[in-house]
Design a protein that fits this description.
This protein is an alpha+beta fold. The chain is built from 13 helices and 30 strands. The radius of gyration is 29 Å and the shape is elongated.
């Protein structure tokens, strides 16, 4: 939303509205009002308006003073400081020539963080400035999500784009009677170590079972909306009074993954966000002229914003088989491009763009109550900012045509592929090769692996299956005995519980054996767990190797933090692609 729409004059640079509060020593965003008077304790009142040619700067008690330009409102003045007769080198008057003011630094920092969040989710964003908190709407989803946000754990945010036709210019979109269905859905998983993230698209036409859903009414009472079996996923929102909590419960029912929080926005988000950054570059393999979405683009690269950007992400008939699955691919390509634009220096060094971006994002956003406050939004933004774009994976729930339909209009989960995808997300396993570790973690790993190593024939280890495919323990045992020379090894069957990642537990006196086995298997220091040994059939102390869900196969090293995922169509946010 522009400055005029906020009640501010059109020509005021938002970055100039940061004012030093002498009582706190911090910069605060002050909105000029039409009424005269100081905004900050200790500041001088604004100069009265002058007509004619009295415009620019004039001297007053040895300090520089701004006067009003025609049609411009004078912001409250800051406390003046004496101006030295000879300005320090590199300074022009009172303002540093190179060093940015603290206010602008704050604005760029917060706006840059917000930009990153918006590009990850595609339909909204965060900003932790208090004057924007009021823009964000909240919904009480009760037990459908987490009661708080933790900076020390992995988290899942369900991103929902509705087809509700609210907002100026949206009358011609979507279903005329829609109450706002779950039209676009992305489950964003952020890893515990913040090294990677996965944005998993959920097709709106996927057949699911919607569970019973308790919803909070305006008077504070709870109403249970009955569930439905065998219906489209998009009906989990809006219909029969279902709220975003119902959509979160449906995700858990269909995938086994628990969404912690949600973000929801309508058509305006795409229009206002792309306009705020002066357009996003897209690419098409063939010229597009879609009469239904009104999208017209030449072959190759183009820049889209506003209505044209919305048409790009909404169109179905211009790409692939004209279905929703092909549209999802186009949306993922668009989000990757939006991410690159928002993280570009052109955006991050423009305070004016960042303010527009932040206001556009928060105006479009609805979230669950536990994250609807400025402090939590700040924490989420900072955690998301840690994830490298090259390790943000876009993927779609593996599906196949609904066998119950003669005319194919819906899809069902592909039970041969989807469970592995769901397990990887639920167990915090990356879809990209994440090899680089934080310095502190790398030092700890090096310390664990440093030292002498035993010979393979001296290694005693038992192998257990803790979530790897059936038969993996026996296959890995065969590899150790016949290929690696670890002949003092045995199969110990299934572990007491499944684990996400493979581990090796050893007693202190087995450190040399542990280092040798880690080198053979490609185990990281994080996989090595100092603990206790067990006694094998010969009465000798033995280490325990537990194969987790990240196990890639007998003899395949486990150095990388990801698993090969066959037949999964995926891309990463740093890839430039053209829609076809």
């Amino acid at each position: 939303m522009d400055a005029q729409g906020r009640g501010r004059a059109d020509d005021i640079d938002p970055a100039d509205q940061w004012v030093l509060n002498p009582r706190t020593g911090e910069y605060e965003l002050r909105m000029p009002s039409s009424a005269p008077g100081p905004s900050v304790p200790g500041s001088r009142p604004a100069a009265p308006r002058k007509g004619g040619a009295e415009d620019g700067r004039r001297a007053d008690d040895g300090a520089r003073r701004r006067t009003s330009a025609p049609g411009r409102e004078v912001p409250p003045q800051r406390r003046r400081r004496p101006v030295p007769e000879d300005p320090a080198p590199g300074r022009r008057g009172r303002r540093p020539a190179k060093k940015k003011s603290a206010g602008r630094k704050i604005l760029m920092w917060t706006g840059g963080t917000t930009a990153f969040v918006i590009l990850v989710t595609g339909v909204g964003g965060y900003l932790y400035l208090k004057h924007l908190e009021g823009n964000v709407s909240t919904t009480d989803v009760g037990s459908a999500g987490s009661s708080s946000f933790s900076k020390d754990e992995a988290f899942n945010i369900l991103i929902i784009g509705t087809d509700k036709r609210t907002g100026a210019g949206n009358e011609g979109y979507g279903d005329a009677g829609s109450v706002g269905h779950a039209d676009t859905n992305i489950l964003l998983h952020v890893a515990k170590d913040r090294s990677n993230a996965t944005a998993l698209s959920i097709p709106r036409d996927m057949i699911v079972d919607i569970p019973d859903c308790p919803t909070t009414q305006e008077d504070g009472s709870t109403k249970v909306v009955p569930g439905q079996q065998g219906v489209r996923f998009n009906r989990s929102l809006g219909e029969n009074g279902r709220d975003a909590g119902c959509t979160m419960r449906t995700v858990k029912e269909a995938t086994g993954i628990q969404p912690d929080h949600f973000m929801m926005a309508d058509f305006n988000a795409v229009k206002t966000l792309t306009t705020a950054v002066d357009g996003v570059e897209v690419c098409v393999e063939h010229a597009v002229n879609d009469e239904k979405s009104k999208l017209v683009l030449p072959e190759g690269k183009s820049k889209v914003e506003g209505e044209q950007a919305l048409a790009f992400v909404r169109t179905r008939h211009a790409f692939g088989n004209e279905g929703d699955l092909d549209r999802i691919k186009v949306q993922q390509q668009f989000l990757g491009s939006l991410m690159r634009k928002m993280s570009s220096s052109d955006t991050l060094t423009s305070p004016t763009k960042l303010v527009k971006l932040a206001e556009a994002a928060t105006e479009a956003l609805t979230v669950d109550k536990p994250i609807g406050n400025v402090g939590t939004l700040k924490d989420i933004a900072l955690e998301l900012k840690k994830v490298p774009t090259k390790n943000i994976t876009f993927a779609t729930v593996p599906v196949k045509d609904n066998p119950a339909e003669k005319i194919k209009a819906t899809v069902v989960i592909d039970e041969t592929k989807a469970p592995q995808v769901f397990d990887m997300i639920a167990n915090d396993i990356s879809f990209t090769e994440v090899k680089q570790q934080k310095k502190k973690e790398a030092a700890a790993v090096a310390a664990r692996l440093e030292g002498t190593r035993s010979e393979p024939g001296d290694i005693r280890v038992r192998v257990m299956n803790g979530g790897a495919p059936s038969g993996s323990a026996q296959k890995e045992l065969a590899y150790l005995q016949t290929e690696a020379g670890v002949d003092k090894s045995e199969n110990a069957g299934n572990a007491p519980a499944d684990v996400a990642k493979t581990t090796l537990e050893y007693a202190p006196e087995q450190a040399e054996q542990a280092r040798a086995l880690a080198e053979i298997l490609g185990l990281s220091g994080a996989a090595m767990k100092p603990g206790e040994s067990v006694t094998n059939a010969q009465g000798m102390p033995t280490m325990t190797l537990t194969l987790g869900k990240d196990f890639k196969g007998a003899g395949v090293k486990l150095n990388a933090a990801s698993v090969e995922t066959p037949d999964l169509d995926k891309s990463t946010a740093d890839q430039v692609q053209c829609a076809s």
